[in-house]
Amino acid sequence: MTPHLDLDLLRSFVTVVEAGTLSAAAPRIGRSQSAVSMQIQRLEQSLGAPLLLRLPRSVELTPAGADFLVYARRLLKLSEEAVASISRPVETGLVRLGVPDDYAAMLLPQALARFAEAHPRVALEVVCEPSTHLLPAIGEGRLDLAIVTGTRPHRIEVLRREPLVWVASPHHVPWMEDPLPVALFEPGCSARMNVIDALGAAGRAYRGVCSSASLLGVTAVVEAGLAVAGLAACSVPPQLKVIGEAEGLPPLALLEMCLLRHPGAETPAVLRLEEVLRRELASLR
């Protein structure tokens, strides 16, 4: 007998895979961790095959789970489109979003995928630039929405405070040099200012090895062993290691993340994407 597929169970399964752990998925689903675990067990029992491997700090897909994930996402997308065709007008148009590139990989994939599933006829234009470039673009109306750090014009609320951490190559010890070699973001960047302020307060001499507008430029210099850098914790690439007080480096201030919307950008599509991004920023760990 073909098992009945419960969409709630499918949604929980996909959310757990995207979040990486049951505990991280629970607040997104709106259930306790134990309730989410029971949902996954019910789904596995109905299918007669394990979908996830429960590891101490994460979950991994089994081969059957990896195959089933493709169908689960398709079914959820079809369900949302079916409901949308009846329950609400189909939103169309273009939304222009700006985000610093060091947050793009952390924030955008899941948030934009969920938005695209719910609003398949809305076109998205994504601009990855530093906050110093995104602020004037919002003010001039060249962007509808922008995620920025370190600047709060007109007392815009802070949606997230992200730790700023020191990083270095695991194969080099540039922090042993004096003055300290540092890879910095371009002038005006809040991460750059936080790094310089922390070193100044600690009385640590430093020399700038590079000044880059992009995360790739900074991490390339650090990976080569030429310098240390201060990066948002959520954007540290796997090839670098986090260092700190044990290496004689001072603590860094938190980065404040804000979501800005151009005053004239009030279309339903823009407002829906703003809601999705607000939820994503609030739920990230």
Automatic annotation (TrEMBL):
SUPFAM superfamilies: Periplasmic binding protein-like II, Winged helix' DNA-binding domain. InterPro entries: LTTR (IPR050176), LysR_HTH_N (IPR000847), LysR_subst-bd (IPR005119), WH-like_DNA-bd_sf (IPR036388), WH_DNA-bd_sf (IPR036390). Residues 5-62 form the HTH lysR-type domain. The keyword Transcription regulation applies. The keyword DNA-binding applies. It comes from the Bacteria. Keywords: DNA-binding, Transcription, Transcription regulation. Belongs to the LysR transcriptional regulatory family. This is LysR substrate-binding domain-containing protein.
